[in-house]
Give the backbone structure.
Amino acid sequence: MEQIETETAIMVADGHPERRREAFFGRLKGPKLRQHQAALIANRLPALRLDLTMPPPAALSALYASPKERFRLEIGFGGGEHLLHRSGEDLACGFIGVEPFVNGMAKLLSALEAAPRDNLRLFDDDAALLLDWLPAASLDAVDLLYPDPWPKKRHFKRRFVNTKNLDRIARVLKPGGYFRFASDIDTYVNWTLRHVGDHSAFIWTAARPADWQTPFAGWPGTRYEAKAIREGRPPAYLTFQRV
Ligand SMILES: C[S@@+](CC[C@H](N)C(=O)[O-])C[C@H]1O[C@@H](n2cnc3c(N)ncnc32)[C@H](O)[C@@H]1O
């Protein structure tokens, strides 16, 4: 398996500044794709993938075949189980799913073959790049579900939640929009509460313990979560609102 340690920030190519991956430190590839999965990546993904070399549309509805009333982004969808569930239950919502791990993307594309839908667009690279491309105040919700935990202290700086990414999420959320975060790793939950608590754009909506101990409404679970629960790590479900 290929372990990619990605470089940060800005590089200059052909005299033009070009951003490289900044917030992604995981694996881009796992086991070799089966032939059919590779064909889906080659043939199906291009029509669904957002092209960040193009200017973003003024209104996100333009990204979909029919107009949408709401827009929701899921960062790091893994095998896509949660994204498929949510996009299937709310057809008036335009979804964007981001997952750089090619095997996860292939899994979602396989599921879409059986259950195609016109309210889903995809991006297969670092979500930070997409967040910088999206128009300001364009999303109703951003989901970050079981982000890579990076439990060792020396790796905390690789966590997706940091001040810069919170600035990015704050910029793209509409006032009143939601940022949802779930994790089974205590230190990441506390880390997120501290970082978001220090950020002036968000408030934590919880009033009592049950609010963060109970899954989000309509929650279908995720594969990663099932493993965490099996292994005795109860998750926390944090909902923040863009002020
Ligand atoms: C622990 S997995 C959780 C997957 C899924 N959300 C779940 O709950 O089953 C975290 C996922 O986030 C993805 N990821 C990590 N950094 C990312 C980034 N900067 N942008 C988008 N996705 C990212 C990884 O490739 C991985 O699939």
